[in-house]
């Protein structure tokens, strides 16, 4: 539900927010701007865990010195590099041990929060009894200059239409604009293992689980300045998911198809259905199931539902359908290959 025109909701005194700020060899000026924006939130009942994923010693020392006079910040150094996905999971496990924390927000090392970010997200959650709330973002460059006032417009996102299956097709929830209720941790943790670092991200998994378990609140107000630069783990992309954008990306790859995109969606979808559905029903329910030989029909059907409700993602649908079509054609080809027939002989 959209909350931007609703009356303010009171935030109970018992609400305390844990902020997970994941870092890795941060830019010092950008990190300082992020810390400053957290310190100047108009909601002040928060604690911030800086969970560092093995930065250079001089960067770790800089961060420690910057927050030395503010006891609301805690620094945790990972003994080995976990990657962004599991580094954020580590932060969730940290606050899970603190029963005073009722909500958990996420921060990147190079963005800037608007002063009202926590207040507006908390009010949206309370008003709709949501498990997760997220907001729009403005897009800024390396120097802090505005590139676009709305990432949702820039990427043609329509998150109000999402549900768990549509999120499996395309993620429209950005972690640094997100806050979750403590209750979500029971269903979301532990994070499912991924075959390769960077296959999927913490915000995507949390959004899928929240949509499956309850309500997501959508705030059409840019409460984060999302910094776009050459070192982003994930960046904003104009008209992301559209047919035109997918064609441009395909041409940039010189027409190569690796089926990597299908594999990533297949594995995340499999992890979701294994977590929440009976095993015997997974292959029938999962639109990305590898065992079902449907040449991508279930993906097309999901894409048509996305188009019908206004969620978008036509380009992503066509990419994934083509991936699955080729995947299934290869399977059929293997069945009729001479080598496969020899292997079938007892």
Can you walk through the features of this model?
With 346 residues, the protein is an alpha/beta fold. It folds into 2 domains: 17-227, Alpha-Beta Complex (Spore Coat Polysaccharide Biosynthesis Protein SpsA, Chain A); 243-335, no CATH class. The chain has 14 helices and 9 strands. It has helices spanning 28-39, 57-66, 84-96, 117-128, 151-154, 164-169, 184-188, 202-213, 243-252, 260-276, 282-285, 297-309, 314-335, 338-344, and strands at 17-23, 46-52, 73-77, 103-107, 112-113, 132-140, 146-148, 178-181, 216-227. Helix 2 (57-66) links the parallel strand 2 (46-52) and strand 3. The longest helix has 22 residues, at 314-335. It is globular.
Fold topology:
Layout: E1 17-23, H1 28-39, E2 46-52, H2 57-66, E3 73-77, H3 84-96, E4 103-107, E5 112-113, H4 117-128, E6 132-140, E7 146-148, H5 151-154, H6 164-169, E8 178-181, H7 184-188, H8 202-213, E9 216-227, H9 243-252, H10 260-276, H11 282-285, H12 297-309, H13 314-335, H14 338-344
Parallel strand pairs: 1-2, 1-4, 2-3, 6-9
Antiparallel strand pairs: 4-8, 5-9, 6-7, 6-8
Brief write-up:
The protein is of the alpha/beta class. 42% of the residues lie in helices and 16% in strands. Strands 1, 2, 3, 4, 5, 6, 7, 8 and 9 form a nine-stranded mixed β-sheet that branches.
Relative strand content: 15-25%
**Broad structural category:** alpha/beta
CATH fold-type name of the largest domain:
Spore Coat Polysaccharide Biosynthesis Protein SpsA, Chain A
Query: Which architecture name of the largest domain does CATH use?
Result: Alpha-Beta Complex
- The H/E string reads EHEHEHEEHEEHHEHHEHHHHHH
Q: Could you say how many structural domains there are in total?
A: 2
Fraction of residues in H or I helices:
40-55%
Note the main sheet.
9 strands, mixed
Q: Note the total helix count.
A: 14
Give the CA-based shape.
globular
**Amino- and carboxy-terminal Cα gap:** 59 Å
Oligomeric state, counting identical vs distinct chains: single chain
Mean pLDDT: 90
Please state the CA-atom Rg, rounded to the nearest Å: 21 Å
